[in-house]
Structures are given as C-alpha cells and as structure tokens.
Design brief:
heterodimer; A: alpha/beta; Rossmann fold; six-stranded parallel β-sheet; B: Rossmann fold; five-stranded parallel β-sheet; four-stranded parallel β-sheet; 22 helices
C-alpha cells in the first residue's frame, strides 16, 4: 500500500495540474452538438482553449460568459443569460455545458437557480439542454472536473425508468481514456453483441475527422437521446474512479448496477473487462479477441527483458497514474517516483512506496537515477534536464502528434505500449552501453 | 489603488483612439467594445500583463491564484532567452479552498520566501488574479514586506483577469514597470545611441534578427522590454535616448510616461517586412541624431539599408515567381494587421483581408492603404466566415495564431502561424525571407492536392 505524502511546499513549481473547469469542458465536448462554456472572465476560456486546441489539434468549441469588473461585483446571472442567448442564436447547439470557475464559485453564484430562471424567461431555449457542472479552479484537477461534468450530465438528462434492456450497456468513460481508447472499448463491447452507450464520447467528436462543412459546436459525440435512456441499461461500466459518482447516481436513480474498472491497461486489467462482457452477454469470447490476447502475451514475453528492474518516475492525474503504473509494475519495472495532482483515496493502491501530491518540480527532485519519465508535455523539459528518456501521457500533449490516437487499453493497446516504451529503453541502451552492462542489457541480448 | 490606475489608463493622452472619444465614452475604458458574453475570444488582463513581463528571463514570475491561471497557461509562449531559464518555470500559490476562505496572503509570503531562498532571482514579479482580488488579498502590501525582508524587488502586478482584455493588461504591466522597476538601477555606461525596444518580446527569436543590425550601426539596445531581457536592463531603461514601440499601442502609457519623466522621445515602428524594417532603422537614426548622436549615423544607416535590401532582393528572387499573385488572409492583431501585409506584398502576394480587432485607427488606415480598395478590414471575422472563404478558395493561405489554425486546416487550406507559438523569427530582413520561404513551403506542399481529391469511390 502506497503512502500518500503532501508536497509540503508553500508554492507550486512547474504545475502538473490543470484546472477542473477545463476537465469539465472537455467532458462536455463528448456530447453531440454541444457548446461548453466557462462562467468566468474571458481569459479562463482563452487559456483552456489554447491547451485543448494544441492537444487535440482540432478546432475546439468553447465559450465564455465574459465576466467583467461590474458583473464580478453585482453578480453574473445577466452575463450567463446573454451568453446562453448569444450562443444559441449563433451556434444552434443542442446542449450548453456551463462550468463554473474560481471566480463564480468564490462569488457563490447560484448557477442552477439562474438556469431555471433563464429557461423560464426564454421559451426559445426549449430545445436546448442546459447543464451546469459545479467546478472551481481551487478544488481538484482535470479528472475531478471531468467527473463532475459527467455526473451533471447524468443528473440533467437521464430519465427515471424501471424498464430494462439486457443488451444495452452504459459505458462511463474517464478523461484518462483517449478517443482511440474509446473506439477500442466500443468495438469490444459491440463484439459481444451488446449495445454500448458511451458517455462522454470523445471518439465521436475529437477523433480528428474532417467534416465537409463548418460546425461551431461539437460534431459527433454522445447523442442526447441516448443519454436520456441510459436508465434502462443492464449495467453501467464505470471506467475510472472519476466517473464512479456518476455511475452511482444512475444506480440510485434507475437501479442500474455498477461495475467499476479502475484500470484497463495491461493483460490482467483487460482480461477482467473482457470476462465481464462475456459473462454479461453469455457469448463466447470472439476469436479475434483471443488472437489479440495471444499477441499481447507474446509482446510481454519479448518485452519483459527491457522493463525488468527499470525505475520509473511518473506524474499524472490519479486514474491515469494508477493504470499506467500498475501496467509498468506488471512488466517488472519499479515505480520509483509517483506524483499525482490530487489526493484521492485510491492512490494508496498505486504500486509504489509513496505517492506525492505535488507538481513537476517534485517529480524532478525525486526522479534522479530513474530510467524513464512519464508525464504530460511539460514533463519533457524535466526529462531533458535529468537526461532521462521521456514518454508522454496525459493532458496536455501539445508537442506530440496524434494525442487522440494513442491507444493503451485493450490487448492491442497494451501490446503497442510495450513496444513503444520498450523501444525507448532499447534506444537509450545503445547510447549508454557501458552503464547498461549491469542492467537488463545482458538478458536482452541473450534473448536474441 | 487599482481603481486609480484604471481611471488613469482610461485617460491616455498619447493614444489616438482614446483622444477620439468623448468624455463619457472615455470613462468606459479602453478596448474597442465591451465583451459580448457567449461571443468573446481572447485573453484577459492577467494574460496581457504576463505577456509583457514574463520574458524578463532572470526574474521569477509567481502567480497568486488558483490552478487555472498558471496551470492552464504556463510556458506556452515562445519568447526566447539567450541565458537564464528561470522565467520558464511556472510558479503559483495554487490556492486551495481553505486559502479562499481564510485569505491567501500568508501563503503568498511563504511562496515568495521559498522562491528567494531556492532560486535567488534578482526580482520576483507577483501577479494578482480574479479570485485573490475578490477575497481581498493585498498583494502590494505583501510584496512591500517581502521586498524589505528578502532584500530584493518583489513587484506586485495588479491585473486580475476581470478588469479587462489582454490589451489592457499589457498597459497595467507597463504601470508596474514604471512604479517599481524602471529607474531603479543606473546602467554602468551610457552612450548617445542607447535605445529601448518596447513591446518586443523576442518571440521565436525575432529580436535576434534585428540586434545584429543595431550592432553594425553602433546602436545599443539598452533594454528590450522585455524580449530576452534581464531585470537590471529593464531597471536601467530610463537612460536610453529613444524608445521604439514595436508592438503597436501595447505599452503606449509606458512610452508616454517615460517621455514625461525622463525626456525620452518615442515612435511606433515595426520590423515585419523589408520596408517597415528600413523605415524603422531610418527613424531611429534620425531621432538619435536629433538627440545628439553623431550625424554620420544617418549615412551609415542608409548604407546598411541599401546593402540589406539588395541582399534580401537576391534571396527573395527565386521565391517571387512561386508566390506571385497568391492570395493571403491575415487574422492577427495590432501592428501585425498592417506590417505583415507589407511583408507579404514584398513577396508579390495579394492580401485579400486582414483582421483589425486589436488595432488602432492608425493601424487600420495603414492596412487599408496598403491593401487598396479590394482588401477588406475585418472588425470581426467569425470562424464560420473564415472557413467559408478558405473552403471556397477565396484565399490560398491563412496567416493567424494557433487558436484558428484548425479552422483553416479543416477547410483543407494552407496555414502559417504568425503569433506567439511559432517557431520561426519573422522580424528584420532575414525574417522577411524566412516568412516568404515558410509561406512557399506551406503553399507548395504536395498534400493539398491529395487531401482535396475525393476518394476514388466518391469521384
């Protein structure tokens, strides 16, 4: 069991954390026809927008209520109303996701009350779903904000029902899953003859497709009508601890049982997922899936030489950290240094002696002597200064092509992750032959 | 305090836009129009302040606020340094809920102390943000105490996001420099040809494209404010003989007040494009000579301009036939709305339109004059319209910043970054060649034919 330690510094140095409202906005981007909106000064949106654009390399719909000095003092409900009307007029969204922020939470804005009044005053908004995620910049991180938005979506849209469709499966996805991951999950669930409802579905909206016309909102993502009937599903698969509260809400509202999968990376994790689908569907595991499992087993056999004894330094949001570090530990590596953005109880399950709640400076100070640094793009400079190979993971990845298409779940994802990280170790080995003579190098050569 | 600053800034005698307003309009503040909720794009005052000050490379920049302000934005601009890297380190108090309830001043002080002890910077800039302003944290008081106890300047930058747009934040940063930095250090030596460059942030190394020109002329850049700057340089900037405002009106209050306090004349110029660069060099020479520099500077400047223009003409020669008649759409701000036009026209291109949302009346007039009647000035250019123009082939390429990059790419149109995230320097004579070369590279890439062709089964 890992010990959780506070960084203890009065000042964050090289932040690891991005803000919860950004996470919430990103979750809203997994809804079709959505315009997310930060209830804040316009700078909050500008910063978040730049990061999202650079990460996904996509045009990103994100608006602002443009709070100014006067509305900060007198209250933001007029700005919220105007923003909703303007966006509706201009972009014709099916849904507007309002994320509150440090500014509006500190003021104590009653956003939900405001939304009710706005709806009452404007019948023209009848066809637009208005959803509020109560996020603030000073509490939590990306995953926390994402989770809050998913809960808010469920709360606002899912209709109470006691009907049950045994083939319909809810899949609540965390922010640690990329569009490529979501595609893999969707296809695997479908391979068992089940019908998944993915929420949020970034694979539909931010998978990097080129539309043939200009769309100011999200194009693709979870259809709102599908969200409304999630109460009739046979089960909710909560992929990541960040979406468990949303799954529990669905359970209490509609009686849909919950199965939580905190991790999906690696053989055992994906085995559990596939086994659950097989059991649920009563179908045998398809041959294509068995074949891929075999490929992963082979990749583990080929790759373990390079992972054994390697010391890893990882900094990430909690769900991502838990999944990746367990995968690396299962390949024989040691998690020598783990830094997480926020303190969640599950971090004690990390395969490390301790997890520091901190920043990239904490990572840098503890990663000396490690063989690999894993973190979002800002960690690259840490790795460069320490002269350690770097593997990008998380958000933002602004200096990496194909951030949306990085696959790590599923047998294929784990297989390719072994190759990608293993190849980093190999490339580094050849450059430092002398030092590596004592390490895994011998065994690896012997294996050839 | 902040209220007085705002009022003072809303009354800027050197700003033509401000002077054109009547009294009641003037009180409403600067920035063309109030922001429209649900239809706004762009940075806040805090963003603007940071853009101006952060390039001071040996200083620490500490953001007093919650995670969004620094966590979502740090180390994202490519303002380069030739030495210290401390300015690229993200420092923030990262307020917690407890700090919001009980106040964040103590945490701020401890953060400043920690930075001083661990990194020993010559100065620490402390940025106010929306939340800390709302809970009433007095950063000026904390900075004052910290300065005394820690024996180094700790400078409050009071530009919380909600007070205005990015453009307004740049001016508040100028005020912070006037109140706490400029004039606090005497330079070791002065020369009759010392100049400052205001609003030149050395994005992608722009500054380094022009400093060699100054060296050849014997003109010394006492301080670039703030590209590749050191704290001491900026602090001693009051001894320059001339201020050039490189980035339009961003620091006009600074230029005007430096003139009032220290008698430093100023002018507005640009280093984008050959004509603008030559014009700026001429103006610098003329104004320095008027200030007492040796008169031979004028002739030497003309020689340099002739040599450089001839050299660039040769380098551009092979590119000209490839770029001739190509139509560009320009979506950027301020001085670039016109200075880049002339750079493109040098290369034989046609500019069909330029955005002027952050430009002054002067910028707009210049842009229109350069483009002629057919060129359009866009006060607002929606992404939808941008997409339509590119998709319909009304423009062959768009030059803009990262946020609109994917509007162009989704229309399957070539695009080039001319804003702060770019990796190439476009300033000066060499920059003009680089820009032409990059445009050619974007336009002539073989992917355009491939990605625009329908799939075989759709043809």
């Amino acid at each position: 069991m890992a010990r959780i330690e506070a960084s203890g510094k009065p000042c964050v140095v090289n932040p690891l954390k991005v803000s919860p409202p950004l996470g919430a906005a990103m979750a809203f981007m997994g809804l079709d026809g959505c315009m997310p909106m930060l209830h804040a000064a316009q700078g909050c949106t500008a910063f978040a927008l730049v990061l999202l654009v650079r990460h996904f390399r996509e045009a990103i719909p994100l608006q602002t209520t443009a709070m100014n000095e006067v509305s900060t003092i007198l209250g933001g409900s007029d700005n919220l109303e105007q923003a909703i009307l303007n966006v509706t007029e201009r972009a014709r969204p099916k849904v507007i996701g309002v994320c509150s922020t440090g500014l509006t939470e500190t003021r104590g804005e009653d956003v939900r009350g405001d939304l009710k009044l706005i709806r009452r005053r404007h019948p023209e908004l009848a066809d637009v779903a208005l959803i509020h995620a109560a996020t603030s910049d000073y509490k939590g991180g990306l995953e926390g904000g994402w989770g809050a938005a998913v809960t808010a979506i469920v709360e606002a849209l899912v209709e109470p029902t006691h009907a049950r469709d045994s083939r319909q499966i809810n899949v609540l996805a965390g922010s640690h899953l990329t569009p490529a991951d979501l595609e893999e999950i969707h296809d695997t669930v479908a391979a068992f003859g089940l019908t998944p409802i993915m929420l949020p579905d970034l694979a539909g909206s931010l998978d990097g497709h080129v539309a043939d016309r200009y769309v100011p909102t999200t194009l693709g993502g979870t259809n709102l009508d599908d969200v409304r009937v999630m109460g009739a599903s046979a089960v909710t698969l909560a992929l990541g601890l960040q979406v468990e509260p949303a799954a529990r809400l669905l359970e209490s509202r509609c009686g849909v049982p919950v199965e939580t999968f905190p991790r999906l990376v690696g053989l055992r994790a994906w085995d559990d997922f596939v086994a659950a689908l097989a059991k649920r569907s009563g179908e045998p595991v398809p041959n294509s899936v068995r074949r891929r499992r075999s490929q992963l087993v082979d990749a583990m056999l080929d790759g373990h030489f390079y992972f054994g004894g390697k010391r890893i330094a990882i900094a990430a949001e909690p769900d991502l950290l838990l999944g990746l570090s367990q995968f690396l530990a299962d390949m024989g590596a040691t998690i020598a240094c783990a830094v997480a953005t926020t303190d969640v109880a599950a971090l004690t399950r990390a395969p490390a002696e301790s997890v520091t709640i901190g920043d990239l400076d904490d990572l840098e100070r503890r990663a000396t002597g490690c063989d690999l640094v894993v973190s979002h793009a800002h960690g690259r400079r840490v790795a460069e200064r320490l002269e350690i190979p770097f593997f990008p993971a998380g958000f933002p990845l602004f200096d990496t092509l194909g951030a949306a298409h990085r696959l790590s779940v599923g047998y294929r994802g784990a297989r390719d992750l072994i190759f990608a990280i293993g190849n980093l170790f190999i490339a580094n080995q050849s450059g430092h032959g002398v030092r590596d003579r004592q390490g895994g190098h011998h065994a690896a050569v012997a294996a050839h | 305090m902040l209220q007085h600053k705002l009022k003072d800034l809303f009354d800027e005698p050197a700003c033509a836009t401000n002077r054109a307003k009547d009294d009641s309009e003037r009180k409403k503040g600067c920035g063309a129009k109030p922001l429209t909720p649900g239809n706004a794009a762009g940075g806040c005052a805090f963003d603007g302040a940071k853009i101006v000050l952060q390039p001071i490379a040996d200083a620490a920049h500490l953001v007093h606020g919650p995670s969004a302000c620094e966590g979502n934005s740090w180390d994202s601009r490519h303002a380069l340094s030739s030495g210290p890297e401390l300015y690229r380190t993200g420092f923030t108090t990262d307020l917690s809920e407890m700090d919001v309830i009980y106040g964040g001043e103590k945490r701020l002080y401890r953060a400043i102390k920690e930075i001083a002890a661990r990194f020993d910077p010559p100065a620490i800039f402390v940025y106010q943000t929306c939340v800390t302003a709302m809970i009433g944290d007095d950063i000026a008081a904390v900075c004052k105490v910290a300065s005394e106890r820690l024996g180094r300047p700790v400078i409050p930058v009071n530009a919380p996001g909600f007070v205005g747009k990015k453009n307004f934040g740049t001016k508040l940063a100028g005020e912070a420099l006037l109140d706490h930095v400029i004039g606090r250090v005497e330079p070791e030596t002065t020369t009759p040809t010392d100049i400052n460059l205001l609003g030149e942030y050395n994005v992608a190394g722009d500054l380094w494209n022009v400093t060699p020109l100054f060296e050849r002329l014997g003109v010394r850049v006492l301080a670039a404010i703030t590209g590749d700057a050191r704290f001491r340089q900026v602090a001693s900037a009051h001894r320059a003989r001339l201020n050039m405002m490189v980035c339009s009106q961003a620091l006009i209050n600074l230029a005007r007040k430096m003139k009032e306090r220290w008698g430093i004349p100023y002018f507005e110029g640009s280093f984008y494009g050959v004509p603008a660069t030559s014009q700026s060099l001429r103006t610098i020479a003329r104004m320095l000579v008027a200030q007492g520099a040796a008169a031979d500077l004028l002739a030497r400047t003309e020689d340099l301009i002739a040599t450089e223009e001839a050299r660039v003409a040769v380098e551009l020669e092979s590119l000209l036939p490839r770029l001739a008649g190509k139509r560009a759409l320009l979506y950027t701000g301020g001085v670039k709305s016109w200075s880049v036009i002339s750079a493109l026209q040098d290369a034989g291109m046609v500019v069909i339109g330029t955005s002027v949302r952050k430009s002054t009346q002067g910028d707009k007039a210049r842009a229109q004059a350069l483009m002629g009647e057919d060129g359009e000035l866009f006060e607002t250019l929606t992404q939808r319209e941008m997409y339509r123009m590119l998709k319909a082939g009304e423009a062959d390429i768009m030059l803009s910043g990262g946020r609109t990059q994917f509007v162009a790419l989704k229309a399957k149109a070539p695009w080039l970054d001319v804003n702060q995230e770019r990796h190439r320097a476009y300033a000066g004579y060499d920059g003009a060649v680089t820009l032409a070369r990059e445009i050619d590279r974007a336009l002539s890439n073989p992917i355009w034919r491939q990605v625009r062709a329908p799939a075989p089964w759709e043809a």
